[in-house]
Amino acid sequence: MNLHIQNDPAAVSKDLAEWLTSSIEEILKFQSRCTLVLTGGNSPKALYSLLAAEPYKNRIDWSKLHIFWGDERAVPFTDERNNARMTYENLLNKVPVVPEQVHVMRTDIAPEASALAYEKILSEYFGDTGKSFDLVLSGMGDDGHTLSLFPGTAVIHEQKANVKAFYLEPQQMYRITLTAPVVNRAGKIIFLAFGAGKAHALKEVLEGAPNPDLYPSQVIQPLSGELHWFVDEAAAKDLQNK
C-alpha cells in the first residue's frame, strides 16, 4: 500500500492529477488503450477540473481512454445526484473523449437491468480472469464505504457478479455498483480522501482489525496490482504508520 499525504485538499488534488496523468502516459507507452474508472461525489471535483485544464488536458491522449464508473445512484442523468452528470460537467464535456468509449451506468432502465448490461460490457472488455481496469479511482465516505459498498450491506461480500444493483434503505434509492472482485483485479487502485471527517474511518480501514461489514473499504485489496491512498493531513491525523 502506498500512502500519499499532502497538506490540504487542493494539494492532494494537484498531486493526484500529476500522478494520474503520468500513469496514463506510462500505460499508453505499452498498450493501445487505457481503461479508467471514475468516481462521483464532491471529493473529485477539484481533481477533474485540474485534468480538464492545462497542462494535464494536453498531456493525456483522451482518444485512447475508455471510461467507466465505480457506482451510480439510480436517478436520471438530469438529477444533480447522478455521478455521471457530475463527471461530465467537471471533466468529460471539456476534453476530447470518444463518446463510444465512455460507458455510463444506465439509469433510464431498471437498476437490475442496468447492472446486467454493465456486467456484459465488462465481460467483453476484460473476460473473467486476469487484469481488469488499468486504473480505478474511488473515494471513501466518513462511514468507511467505497463505491456503493455501504456498512452492513450484503454486496460487500459479493463474489460472483462484477456489478450489482440493490435498494439502499437508508437513502431510499437503488444503487448500482462495481463489486470487490472486479475492482481487485485492476492494475492500480487509487483512493482519494480528505478532511477530518475521514480520519477515524481511514485509521480503521488501514490499521484496524478486519471488519469489512463496518468498514467496507477494507475489501478493496488488489490481487496483484497497486493500492494508493491520496489523503490530506487532516484525514491522516490518527494514523500511526505514515
End-to-end distance, in Å?
A: 11 Å
- Separate helix tally: 8
H/E series, N to C? EHEHHEEHHEEEHEHEH
Fold-level CATH name: Rossmann fold
Number of domains: 1
**CATH class category:** Alpha Beta
- Per DSSP E runs of 2 or more residues, the count of β-strands stands at 9
| Share in helix | 25-40%
**Range of strand content:** 15-25%
Q: Shape from CA axes?
A: globular
Radius of gyration: 17 Å
What does this structure look like?
The chain has helices at residues 9-30, 45-51, 56-59, 83-90, 111-126, 180-183, 199-207, 233-236, and strands at 2-6, 34-38, 65-69, 71-73, 135-139, 163-168, 173-178, 188-193, 226-232. It is an alpha/beta fold and 242 residues long. It has one domain (2-236): 3-Layer(aba) Sandwich (Rossmann fold). The relative contact order is 0.18.
Brief rundown of the structure:
The protein contains 8 helices and 9 strands. A hairpin with a 4-residue loop joins strand 6 (163-168) and strand 7. The chain is globular, with a radius of gyration of 17 Å.
